[in-house]
Each structure stands twice: as structure tokens, then as C-alpha cells.
Amino acid sequence: MRLGQIKAEGGYIAAIFEGGLARPVPSYTIAELIRRSEVQNVSLAQTTARLASHHAEPHAAAIPIVPPEVWACGCTYERSASFRDAEHGTREGMYAYVYNEARPEVFFKGTARVCVGPGQAIGIRADSRFTAPEPELALVLGSKGNIVGYTLANDVSAWDIERENALYLPQSKVYTGCCALGPVIVTGDDLPDPYNLEISCTITREGQRRFAGSVSTAKLHRKFETLIEYLRRANPTPAGTVLLTGTGIIVPEDAALAPGDIVTISIPEIGELTNQAQTVGAV
Ligand code: DO4
Ligand code: MG
Q1: 44 CA distance to ligand 1 centroid (A)?
Q2: Contact assessment for residue 183 and residue 64, using Cβ atoms and an 8 Å cutoff
Q3: Measured between alpha carbons, how far is residue 6 from residues 25, 29, 49 in Å?
Q4: Residues with CB under 6 A from ligand 1
Q5: What's the rounded Cα separation, in Å, for the pair 103 and 226?
Q6: Fewer CB within 10 Å, N side or C side of the chain?
Q7: Is the pLDDT of residue 91 over 90?
Q8: Among the bound ligands, the one closest to the CA of 169
Q9: Are 76 and 104 in contact, with CB atoms under 8 Å apart?
Q10: 110 φψ region: left (φ > 0), alpha (ψ -120 to 50), beta (else)
Q11: Using an 8 Å Cβ cutoff, are 194 and 243 in contact?
Q12: pLDDT band at 243, cuts 50/70/90?
């Protein structure tokens, strides 16, 4: 099932997306449906199907969940680790270490406050000269850490700030518009092999293609269960938490995001997530 949210009732409500149309679920957000499905001990798809309107309407997909917390994993693809070590002038440094060790990199990416949905602006910090999109498969988790669905995420990051010093990571990762989610959440029953998905990304400036790249989730060096297990060690995350699984697409510095750039991330089984970049904050 393809679930998400639409703008309605003065906020967001859940909807089932089918054939280009949406069947609204009045009075419920996706987070509320996840909690309800847990209380009733039935799947999210069943809970949603029971409450959804039978009338399909044209609606734009909004942010598919208002997440209480967003976490992200890093260096889960070899490409991400080797690029970051190279930025520090080493062939194998701290990023290769994390790539190879049992404990993955897991960092806090923020709350709903810094998240945007399809069509909303992603941020370029005013104090960054090299901000890049990080196209990632994202897991939507239930209260026990179970995967209730999959969506797309853009872990937009100020790579120059990260490169300057590892202790600057939170500033490179968490700021207004740093995380785009959407367009929909695909439940597990409709995504039989999440380790075999092709993620693509393009950056377009004034109608001209600046960058195109892709990677398969088959190149992911970790199992989702391992990432979730480390996330939740001594840290029980609430239902609706979103976990980004890392990037395998690296944008070169000459394609660094500029205000007005259009970033599109896609996985055919999930859809396309498009956002325009804009400067946030002031120096
Ligand atoms: O520490 C670096 C962050 C890595 C990351 O976000 C990724 O690999 O996706
Ligand atoms: Mg990332």
C-alpha cells in the first residue's frame, strides 16, 4: 500500500495513494494511524484501509509523516566512506573505520521542525559553500523498532562544514530544511526486496542538468535490522521515527547546490521527491 498525507483539516491527514489519486483518511495523521494499528494489533495497511474514504480525489502528496524524531546512518555505502576519507586527505581513516566496524554511524537528524515534504524548499546554510543532497532510502519505524514502511529522504548536508572538523557534524546536518521526505510511504508487503532498489538523483539549474547519479541499495553494507538495533540501544524511539539509511551517491563539488537548484530523488517503487534549494539563515 502507498500511504502518505495530504493537506486538509487545517493540517495534514493521512491518505492512500492509488492511480494518481488519493483516498483521504479523515481525522488521522500517519503517525496516529501507526499508533492505532499498534493498539489494535493489526497492520498499518489494514488499519488505514478500514478508515479510508472510498472516494478517490486528486490531491498533491504532502510530507508523508510528521516525524517525532529523524535519525540517520552514515558510511553505510563504501562510496560515502571513501569520499569522506579522501576529503580528509587519507585513503582509509575514520570513515573507513566506521564502515568496517560492527557499530554503525547513527546521528540525530532532527525533528519535524527541520523536515519538508515534496515541493517544499530544502536549505542551503548561508555559511556553507558546498552543500549537497544525500539521496537515501528511509525507514519508518513503529514503537518497537519494526519497519512499518519505506520512503525517500534527502539528507541535505553542508559538506564543507563537515569536512572542516568532525565535531561540526551536527551543524552540517541539522538546520532549517535539511531533510526532505516523501512522496509516499510504501508498506513492506508492497516492497518485496528493499535491498534491490535503484536510487537516482538529479540536480537541475535553470533547466540544465548539473548532476545525475544512481546507486542500488544492493550496495548497502548493513542490514536494516542492525541499523535499527544500534539506534534503539538504550534509546527507545517513538512510533513514527524515521531512520535514514545512508547515501551511496556522491555529488562533486562543482555541482554544489545553489539557490534555485531543483533536486529530484527517485526510486521507481516509491516515486519521486522533488525540492528546490534556497538559502536559509544569514551569516
Ligand atoms: O559522517 C558523515 C555522514 C555520512 C552520511 O550522512 C552518509 O553516509 O549518508
Ligand atoms: Mg547521509
Answers
A1: 30
A2: yes
A3: 9, 9, 16
A4: 72, 74-75, 80, 84, 105, 134, 155, 169, 246-247
A5: 9
A6: C
A7: no
A8: 1
A9: yes
A10: left
A11: no
A12: very high
- DSSP bridge partners of 202: 212, 264
Residue type, 37: S
What is the 35 CA–ligand 1 centroid distance (Å)?
A: 30
Residue 212: what residue type? Answer: A
Rounded distance from Cα 50 to ligand 2 centre (Å): 36
pLDDT digits (tens, 9 = 90+) for 14-55: 999 999 999 999 999 999 999 999 999 999 999 999 999 999
**197 pLDDT above the threshold of 90:** yes
- Counting residues of the chain whose pLDDT is more than 70, the rounded percentage is 100
Rg (CA), the chain: 18
| Phi (first) and psi of residue 251, to 5 degrees | -90, 130
d(CA 60, ligand 1 centre) in Å: 30
Number of H helices, E strands in the chain: 7, 17
Q: What angle do CA 109, 189, 104 make, to 5 degrees?
A: 35
Tell the residue nearest (CA) to atom 6 of ligand 1.
74
Q: Amino acid identity of 211?
A: F
Cβ neighbours, 10 Å, residue 252: 12
Query: Looking at residue 88, what is its pLDDT?
Result: 85
Between CA 145 and CA 139 the distance in angstroms is: 10
Q: Which of 70, 71, 75 to mutate to test ligand 1, by most ligand atoms within 8 A of the CB atom?
A: 75
159 Cα–ligand 1 center, Å: 10
